[in-house]
Specification:
With 366 residues, the protein is α/β, with parallel strands linked by helices. It contains 11 helices and 17 strands. Strands 1, 2, 3, 4, 5, 6 and 7 form a 7-stranded mixed sheet that branches. The chain has a 6-stranded parallel sheet with strand order 8-17-14-11-9-10, sandwiched between helices. The chain has a 4-stranded mixed sheet with strand order 15-12-13-16, with helices on both faces.
Length: 366
C-alpha cells in the first residue's frame, strides 16, 4: 500500500467516525446503521446492549433514543492501524445525557473499533463501547425547544414548558408522522387517519364481530360514536353494559375479572409523546389492567391535540389540561370530583401485533 492510499484510508475512516457521531446527534438511526457492515456489531457492555446487524442497530438505537431527555456526544480522534482491507482503532468520547426517568450524568468513554473496506467504502465491522469515567451529579442545563422545520430530526425535546392552551391545538402533519414512526419503533402498530369516521370504520376491521370488547371511559370514544358502535350495536360481546348491570356491592370480583382481561380493549389516552409512549390516567384504575396487557389486543384512538414532545410534558398535560376538564365532567354527572390516582405509561409493546394506535389529524376529546 502506498503512502497516498494509507492517507486516503485514514481520512475516510476518520470521516466514518465523525459520521457516526453526527447520525447519533441528529437521531438518524437508518444512517447510523448504514455505517456498519451488514453483519456489523455495536456492543455496549456498560448499558448493557449488544446489537448485531443493521436492523438490530437501527431498532435498538431508536429504543435507546426514546429514553433520552437530552443527549450530547463529542468524539475525539484516536488511533487507526491499517492492515490491508481491514483496520482497527480507538475513538475517545465525552457525553452529557439525561433520560426521561431522571438518570443523568457526564461520562468519558472509548470506542474500540474494527473497520472493513467494502464496495461502499470503509464501514464499522464492530464498535465496542467502554466507559472509563462516569459522574452522575445533577446536570444544571436543559435542552432548548427544537425549532419547527430545523431539520434536526429530533424525536424528543425538553422545552420551556408549553402554555396549557397549546394542549388543545392539533399537531402538524410532520409531528404526527414523527409520532407514528416512534410508535412503530417501539412495537406498536400506528396509523394516521383524517377524521373520526375513518376511525369508526377501522375499528370494524380491527375488532372481529362477536369479540369481547371493553371500552374506556373516554370522551374521544363518546364524541366519535365509537362507544355507541361497540356498546349498543349488538355486534360485539360488550363488557361495559354487562358491568353496569352487576350489583357493585355483591359482584365486585366478577366486575374486576371482566374488565381485566377482555379480548379487546378500545380506549383513548391522555397524551402520546413524540418518542412513542402512551400515557393514560385514571381515578379508580379499573380500566388500566386491560390496557397494560390484560387484554389480548388493544386499540387506542388519539386526537391530534394529544401529541406532546416528551414524558414530562405528557404529565403536565394530564394535570393542567385533562384533569380540570374531567373534573368538571365528573362533578356534573356524579356530583363528585375526579383525581389522577393512577397513571399508566406504555413505553413499548413487547407483544408484536397486540397494540394499534389510530392517530387522528383532527382534535377530539381532551
Amino acid at each position: 500500500m502506498n503512502d497516498f492510499q494509507a492517507i486516503a484510508d485514514r481520512v475516510e475512516i476518520e470521516a466514518l467516525r465523525g459520521e457516526f457521531t453526527d447520525a447519533v446527534m441528529m437521531r438518524d438511526r437508518r444512517r447510523l446503521a448504514s455505517l456498519f457492515t451488514p453483519d456489523g456489531a455495536l456492543r455496549m457492555p456498560n448499558i448493557p446492549v449488544e446489537q448485531v446487524g443493521r436492523e438490530e442497530i437501527r431498532a435498538g438505537g431508536e429504543r435507546l433514543q426514546s429514553l433520552w431527555d437530552f443527549f450530547v456526544q463529542n468524539t475525539h480522534p484516536g488511533t487507526i492501524l491499517l492492515d490491508g482491507d481491514t483496520a482497527t482503532g480507538r475513538a475517545y468520547i465525552q457525553e452529557l445525557a439525561r433520560t426521561l426517568d431522571g438518570r443523568q450524568g457526564l461520562n468519558y468513554a472509548v470506542y474500540h473499533d474494527r473497520y472493513q473496506r467494502t464496495t461502499e467504502g470503509w464501514k464499522f465491522s464492530e464498535r465496542v463501547y467502554e466507559v472509563r469515567y462516569l459522574d452522575t451529579s445533577p446536570l444544571a442545563g436543559t435542552a432548548p425547544q427544537a425549532t419547527q422545520g430545523s431539520g434536526t430530526n429530533r424525536a424528543d425535546t425538553t422545552a420551556t414548558p408549553a402554555p396549557a392552551a397549546s394542549f388543545a391545538d392539533p399537531a402538524s402533519a410532520e409531528r404526527l408522522e414523527r409520532v407514528a414512526a416512534a410508535l412503530c419503533a417501539n412495537g406498536f402498530a400506528a396509523e394516521i387517519l383524517d377524521h373520526t369516521e375513518e376511525a369508526r370504520a377501522r375499528i370494524k376491521d380491527l375488532v372481529p364481530e362477536g369479540s369481547s370488547v371493553l371500552t374506556g371511559a373516554s370522551e374521544t370514544l363518546r364524541l366519535s360514536g365509537i362507544d355507541e358502535d361497540i356498546n349498543a350495536s349488538g355486534r360485539y360481546d360488550a363488557i361495559r353494559p354487562r358491568v353496569l348491570a352487576i350489583d357493585r356491592a355483591t359482584g365486585a370480583d366478577e366486575i374486576r375479572r371482566l374488565v381485566a382481561s377482555p379480548e379487546f380493549v378500545v380506549n383513548s389516552v391522555a397524551a402520546v409523546t413524540e418518542t412513542g409512549s402512551l400515557v393514560l390516567a385514571s381515578g379508580s384504575g379499573s380500566q388500566l389492567p386491560a390496557n397494560a396487557g390484560g387484554a389480548a389486543h388493544a386499540v387506542w384512538i388519539v386526537g391530534a391535540q394529544k401529541v406532546v414532545p416528551d414524558l414530562s410534558t405528557a404529565l403536565r398535560r394530564v394535570e393542567e389540561h385533562c384533569l380540570p376538564l374531567e373534573n368538571a365532567r365528573a362533578q356534573a354527572l356524579y356530583g363528585m370530583p375526579s383525581a389522577v390516582n393512577r397513571l399508566l405509561v406504555l413505553n413499548a409493546e413487547p407483544r408484536p401485533g397486540r397494540g394499534t394506535v389510530l392517530l387522528l389529524r383532527e382534535a377530539i376529546g381532551y
